[in-house]
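Issue 218. Parser rejects a valid record. Input:
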Amino acid sequence: MPINPDALASSIAGLSGLTGAASRVEHALEHVVAETDRIFAVDGAGLLLLAEGDVLRYVAASDKRGTIVEKLQEQIGEGPCLDAFEEGTPTLAADVAADARWPTLGPLAGEHGIHAVLGVPVRLDDSPVGTLNVYSSGYHEWDDGEIEAIQAFARIIASVLRGAIDAHVQGKLTTQLQYALDRRIVIEQAKGILMQREGLPAEAAFERIRRHARSSRERVADVARRVVEGETLDPRPAG
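Output the parser choked on:
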């Protein structure tokens, strides 16, 4: 799926004037998602944003297939787009249906004709608040140019969202954004505590929190909040 550099530059320039005004924020997000789909020449694109309950919720998709894969990840609670959010880095799969990282999502995605997936975090105040994602019906190895391109579109979405917050737009979407920002602050604080207490790098500190949350069937933010309050997590596994 080679991306034409001139078309990419023209598309980004054309989207730069989008705003987060109250009457236009949802429309602006849908427009960016549709343009992402067009530039990548993929089979679908979508946007997930964090909502209360520590789950990513479907916000927009370019087509039915994009809607399906976004909602599947939302309902199942696993997938490359969720990992892109939690880890704060691009996550890609050449064929999610055959990828052992997502044993529940993979077969279901394959049944709906979804195979290659690329998700990148959408950041506000340097913290992920959601993910922008593209999908293909066939096997595809994503390259660095594609990753950089979708990151550029994710920055446009972040700009629209920031505009909505700065304009004090009221509504469900901005409530979600504030929740996401508050959540990430607590998680970053907990990571810092574990890094200092246990001498861990940032990624390992987050993995400690996430592993504890999964084993105890809790939300990541709830575990992080208790770490900030002084609770000690279970001892690290040996080796």
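Fixed in the parser; the record now loads. Residues 172-228 form a domain with the Arc Repressor Mutant, subunit A fold (CATH 1.10.10.10).
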